[in-house]
Structure formats: structure tokens, C-alpha cells
Amino acid sequence: MWGFVSTAALELQLAREALMNPSVQTVELPNKVHLPYVEQGDPAGPTLIFLHPVGDSWRAFDGLLSELPDSIHAFAPTQRGHGDASRPESGYRSKDFAEDLLYFMDALGIEAAFIAGGSSGGLATQCFAIDHPDRVRGLIFLGAPLRLTDNPMTPKVLESVSELTDPVDPEFVRDFAGGIVREYVSPETFEEMVAESMKVPAFVWKATIAGLAEDDFTSELPNVSAPALVMWGDQDRGLPRSDQEHLVELLQDARLIVYRGGGHMLYWQLPDQVAADIASFIEEHGREHR
Q: Any idea what DSSP says for residue 182?
């Protein structure tokens, strides 16, 4: 009644706080690329790795990570060219990001994992599942495109980045992110996101978006047998439902969850619901590997 806590209970509480409040670490990959990442959750639990979209960093999943149960061993790396990661002069196609993911898993001793791609990070997720099926326990697509080669917005985005120079104009970043996340976060959080995106140099914006505009893995997706969860909001102004349904049809074992009223950035808008659905998916398919 006086608030006294036993030593064992205190240790348990501190351990739980450490799991749910990750600190940023950095790993050097065999290709000499350095990737910052956060890690949380029970190391004995199923492993989940998040891949962020172009222009973001691991912080894109900050809110979602806080909603995940600590039974899931979650990682969120910042990909090359972004945030505080290395910025090599080349290597910004989906296959390059997928190769970094393989090296990341090898470096941290991760045999296989659930891979979750947010928005354009879904293309690297597709690529990884195609190239390294034995390292995938399941796939999660968070408002991710089937492809961007024929998306009506792609020419406009390519044009908007074509004239970028360093330092990147903050208004470009605000316009790029504002239409999809501003309404879901506080002004302070939005400005923090802008500051993080400002770390991405102009050549990385150009190279990454050029790669996204060309990458198309649809012909190889029918070979992917890993279970997949496709998550999409019916108010997503950039990705039509037909693309999401086509993605489900192409994959051997996939299902679609539609969030009524949900926009493109589901993990910002509805982190509790998205986290719960991810946890259920992992619980369902993680049993097969226990």
C-alpha cells in the first residue's frame, strides 16, 4: 500500500521498460555500410523486421513499435542513404536494400524473420522474399504498392525530385510527407519527421525514387510461398484497392485487411489496430516454427 516494490518485481519492470524503449545501435555490414537500428522485445520470441519507405528512417515505426507486445522480437533498421546510415554513392534499388537486409540478418544472427514493409519499403520486402525465401517466415505489407511503374503519381514524384540540390529544401520534404502523415501526428512530431527526412541527400532521393519507378517484381511474386498479410486503408489516395487485391492474388498465401477510414500511413494513423493485427498474424504463423 505504500508503493514498496520487491527487488524481483523492480528488475522485471526495468527489463520490460528496456524492451519497450529501445536505444539506437549501429551495425557494420560486410559491404561496409553502417545501419543504425533499434531492437525491442523478447529475444526468444518471433523476429519481426521493419523496412521504412523512401525519405524516412527507423523512426517511421516509432509509434507502431510502442504498441507491439514485447513477446515479439522487433527490429527497425535505417536503410542506406537515410537518417544516420551510410550514404554510398550508388546502390539504391530495391535489390540493394534487400541485400543489405540479408547482411543485416547475418550480422545479427537472425536465421529467418517476419518482414514488414511500409509504403515503398514493400518493394524491397517483395524482392527479399523472392531472392531469399528461406530467410522469410512471413510478409507484412503496410500500405505498400504492388508496383509504382504505372502509378499515376509516379511521374509527378519523379519531376519533383529531378531538380533537388543540397541542402534539400525543407518545403519539398514537408510537401512530400505532409499529404500523407500531417493529419495523423502532432505539429511537433511532424517537424521531427521533417528534420529526419532532411538528412537524406538529394542524390539519394533521386536514385531511390528512380529505382522505385522502375522496379516491378510481379512476374516473380507467384513463386513466393511465405504467408503474407496485406494491410490497406480505404482512404488511401495513392494506392487503389485493385492493386492490393492483385498483390493478394499473386502471392500463394495472402489475405487482405481493409481499414475503413484508414489513409496511406496506417501505422501512424492506427498504430494500435495495426499492431494488434500484426501480432495476431505472427502468433498464427509463428506456431509453425516452434
A: G
Peptide bond into 167 cis (omega under 30): yes
What is the CATH number assigned to the segment(s) 18-289?
A: 3.40.50.1820
Cα 184 to Cα 178: distance, rounded to the nearest angstrom: 10
SS3 for 252-271, per residue?
CCEEEEEECCCCCCHHHHCH
State the pLDDT at residue 191: 84
pLDDT digits (tens, 9 = 90+) for 174-194: 888 766 666 677 788 788 888
User: Which residue shows C-alpha cell 509509434?
Assistant: 63
Do the beta carbons of residue 127 and residue 216 sit within 8 Å? no
Question: How does residue 286 score in pLDDT terms, banded at 50, 70 and 90?
Answer: confident
Cα–chain center distance at 157? 20
Check whether 290 has a pLDDT greater than 70: no
**Distances in whole angstroms, Cα of residue 93 to Cα of each of 44, 59, 221, 266:** 33, 21, 18, 24
Dihedrals φ, ψ of 277, to 5°?
-70, -35
Q: How far is CA 95 from CA 100, 206, 208, 219, in A?
A: 9, 16, 11, 15
> Region 33-59: what's the mean pLDDT?
97
Phi then psi dihedrals of residue 204, to 5 deg: -75, -45
Looking at the chain, the whole-number percentage of residues with pLDDT higher than 70 is: 89
Question: Quick one: what percent of the chain has pLDDT higher than 90?
Answer: 77
Q: What angle do CA 74, 60, 87 make, to 5 degrees?
A: 95
* Percent composition of the chain: helix, strand, coil (DSSP 3-state, to 5): 45, 15, 35
- Cβ atoms of residues 87 and 21 within 8 Å: no
